[in-house]
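Narrative summary of target 7.
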Amino acid sequence: RTKPVAEGRLALVGATLVDATGAPAVPNATVIVDNGRITAAGPSASTPVPPGARRIDVAGKTIIPGLWDSHAHLHQIEWIPTYFAAGVTSVRDMGSEWPLLVAMRKAIRSGKVTGPNLFFAGLIDGPGLTGFGEFSAATPEEGRAIVRRYHRLGFEMIKIYMALAPEVMAAICDEAHTLDMRCTGHVPNSMDLHEAIDAGMDQLAHFPVRGDLITDEGKKQIAHFLAKKTIFDPTASWGEIGGKSAAEPMENIQPVLKHLPRPLLQEHVASLGQSPSDTATSHARLARMLANIKAAHDAGVPIIAGTDEGIPAYSVYRELELYVKAGFTPMDALRAATAVAAQAMRVD
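Modeled conformation, tokenized:
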């Protein structure tokens, strides 16, 4: 096993440094790491290599912060090394089998397994045939009890799901906030987007806005998001896969497919991207979504990069490509998967 933290002191010399603060890239930079912690970073001319440090020449490379996937579902243990190998060093799971999640995080934090930082949003849905997941709440009291259980398990957030009644959803958010947790997820079917935000949702999965955000009505929606400090993880790459015409090769949007092991292709990817829409219609639908994401971003609504499912880790790359396609600067796209994501989880 390769240790995730370098021992001793080392200096990475000569790379272009992008620190994701929004500052310009630094050419010919030096980064000093002391027992796994960055202690200095900047232009090589003003960042001396300490005596005795192991010097590593990284000229021609680029150094960026580790990436985030702010909307993941860790269904398999194999996804842990996949994320880490792809440079995704922080992952927020948005609803998977909680015993597996807790065991994964324990193994990583103990040092037994090399993997990303894991954060969890525990899913709660309503009862009945439309309910989803292990924990369902029919009353406010049941909802509060489930929140407390997730809190004891070390979950940082609650994921709201679609079959919850309004009064139950409001009680869940209230209990979560009392315990210094935050709420994200889907808008319940019994509410609209703005009612859900007013009831306590801090963040929203996907991008369930109404209409076109550049219209007067759309600008009112944006004003509400800003007033409530609402954060979105749009999962544009997942929307692209789900809406992709069956006539278009998946490799057009996920070129990493040619490198993936066959079991993953057969069991996870084979059924994706089979919309009956023609390619032009699929592309037009995606363009409308990207235009709305860009309008929200330009107004100051925080956007964080998440993939939902897609290709583990590698869909983060496509998510950022789509943000640039929407009109983000490359720096803003990178920040959506680094600094802004860390701020959204309150670990910046």
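The chain has a mean pLDDT of 93.
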